[in-house]
Write the structure tokens for this entry.
Amino acid sequence: MRTLARQPGRMPSASSVSLRNTARPFSILVTLLMILLGAGLCPPTAGQKSNPPAQPSSVQPTGGQLTAGQVVQNLVRMNLERTEALQSYQSTRVYRLEYKGFPGGREAEMVVKVKYRAPGTKEFEIVSETGSKLLIDRVFKKLLQGEQEALEAENQKRIAINQENYEFTMIGCETGPSGPAYVLSVKPRTKNKFLFQGRIWVDAEQFAIVRIAVEPAQKPSFWIKDTRIETLYVNVNDFWLPAHNHSLTAVRMGGHADFSIEYKDYRITAARQLNKISSATGPSR
């Protein structure tokens, strides 16, 4: 968007004020949506890599159910296994955003083809763009740029779902579409605007995150009142990748943003054999 210069001694025009006020919620929205990079935009195979603690080859359940610490140890270990095994894949994403607020409503959609190559390269090809150019340029394309940056090793370390970044508490077990899963509450150990708090669901057999329902641990801006983020994952040849991401954000100016990403047409193009943890370490299916 072109910057409008202000002439000395003259009041800014109504159009320039409108443009600046319009851009503000979207710049805040980009900052907020970058949190999604830690809550699901980067697949667990890449975004949760961490050195697992030394321990036996399989963790035995206590009283028929693992503790929160045991579940997380298995999760970290299997994320490392998946990271090392997955070499490349392709997929399609559909980004959708509807914004209602000052000075008016806007909506946009963008379809993107994605190619991932280990250890941390993603190529994005924009297939189509419809709707608000402001949303496409200031939100969607900024998110693609931010996702590339999130793949860097140091950034992954800061947002990884592990015991270094989060405290975990066992809530219980639930049976969902993919089968039994452990439900854990998560709380950041440090102040980091890219971390979150809420709940995660971990598959009881493959020890992969199948669902995340969270909110930012810190509000990224005074202008953000409330945000709810949910990410669902799908099993693609034993690699768990994002299936759908949805967030609702309320802005203090009276508006709200409804943002979603649909992931589809996954195709694993190269992978090594994946070592698995025995299903005996969790509830039976």
Remarks:
- The chain is about 25% helix and 40% strand.
- Residues 20-280 form one domain.
